[in-house]
Amino acid sequence: MEQPSNHRGQxxxxxxxxxxxxxxxQTSTKTNKSYGILLCAVITCFFVLLVFSRQYRTPLxxxxxxxxxxxxxxxxxxxxxxxGPGIExxxxxxxxxxxxxxxxxxxxSSKSIRPDGVLKRVHLINGHFPGPxxxxxxxxxxxxxxxxxxxxxxxxxxxGLHIENNMDGVVGVTESGIPPGSSxxxxxxxxxxxxxxxxxxxxxxxxxxxxxxxxxxxxxxxPKSTVRGLRASSAPYSKEFLLLIGDWYHRPAEDVxxxxxxxxxxxxxxxxxxLLINGVGHYNCSMAVPARLVDCVQxxxxxxxxxxxxxxxxxxxMINTGSLVGFTVAYPTESLTVTEVDxxxxxxxEASSVGILYPGQRMxxxxxxxxxxxxxxxxxxxxxxxxxxxxxxxxxxxxFAINPSNAYHAxxxxxxxxxxxxxxxxxxxxxxHILSSLPRHANITEMVYVKTTKxxxxxxxxxxxxxxxxxxxxxDPLVPLNALPRAKWDNHQLALAVGDQDQxxxxxxxxxxxxxxxxxxxxxDTGHPFHLHGHHFYVLTVYKSSIGxxxxxxxxxxxxxxxxxxxxSDTNGLDLSRAMLRDNxxxxxxxxxxxxxxxxxxxxxxxxxxxxxxxxxxxxMLVNVGNYTDFPRAHA
Length: 636
Description:
- The protein is mainly beta.
- The chain is built from 6 helices and 32 strands.
- The strands form 6 sheets. Strands 1, 10, 11, 12, 13, 15, 16 and 18 form an 8-stranded mixed sheet that branches.
- The chain crosses the membrane at residues 34-52.
């Protein structure tokens, strides 16, 4: 290509040549430059379209209608009209009674349905998506007979509960899974000290992203002196609703994961296609990308999820059931009051928008409708951090009407949830009575690093790592880890052995618990929500540095970065009054978190990123608590 003359800018006005020849030279130069810019733009657009089209090209199957559980109206998903009310809970059936045994029979299957108008094969429990909501109280025993009629091995994890290790439901760690055509009975006793919002979901492969999940609510018992009916009048709300909110993919999860685990993804997380609340969503068929083959039936609906009355307060139990994206909830009409996060009470705070709730996390809100009978709605705003490329068909902000008489379409224009008062739930401390059990120092300190890497030896495929280990379920031998001597674990298992007590302390009759400080350094360019099975932990600090890796090495640094050793010299510079008791923690990019937990639940427990694609790519490790002789035996 001809280059512009280097002397053109040095000509004096009087020396400027003229005539047709020089004008043709100018025209040619400008034209060539324009062609170059146009060519670069075309190549860039082609590359983006190539990546995008490769992600979405799996056709879907035929329709089999299904009804949504816990609804006030039967819903035929084969028609374009659909209504998705909230799942109303019934605490009055559980808070006054004594502990009891509940026996549940679940048959798991797969059928093609239209949760948001697009046909997809979805996992069902007793014919329903999402699965049935379990309501219980502390001390209850649940016998759940799970029959697997899906053509792959599965397991169920009871997220947030401190139960026996062999019932935790993690394939390769606590069990071998339930093969197709087989059944297994989960025997779960809810601890006396636990109540709040929990959930269950598949913990085998990628089945959670295809719909295998549901709510698990443990109601706090009323005081013994409470008369039935009086409690309701003294509560700050009249009803409770369960909202299972999460991103949704139109392709099978295996296809989504296959796209991610290839060099062509460049480590970019697969962007979702839609948003569901209690298994129902709204997708604009006209926005579907031509490169993506979907069977879409436009579902025009008001998507009214709460049958609510004016001047009335409601408790909303929200769970992020998604595979990737966090979300913010906005209620511009009035304020939302946050009362619990991850089943633990927090210092109640009000705001018109609350977030970000990341995958696996839960929060309880008090919503009060305005006194006037006017339009009222909730806005769900999906966090864009993990969405590194555009999905034109995705509506990342959706508004759902509350009052049926003033309902409107979910695709209506959404106001920015951040323009009013905003509360970041990742920084809401636990109340003083919960912090009273937090010791000033730990007995053991451990440190790990996490990162997604693309090594040439792995063909530049993105694998998640804890330190130098990328986790996969135990394969050789094919035995769950908690039934296998440590010497026989394969090379994909990174484990921290923290113990419950030293043998010497046991011999001396000491019953002091072992407290562990776990420093997690996130070296990635994106944040991760981490979940520890079988335990809650105190989040002492989460610190993101403006420069460098933002990591913390407790074995070489006197004080954690971001701490104040002068003000809090007796706690290593940490303000423990701001600690939060959680079972999920979000660690931003280039940041670290310092977690402190009591190692008092024996077993082999998974600690992992709750973004499903990161977990499946290896971002997980194990925490061993107690001696192997203390572990309950896994079921094979």
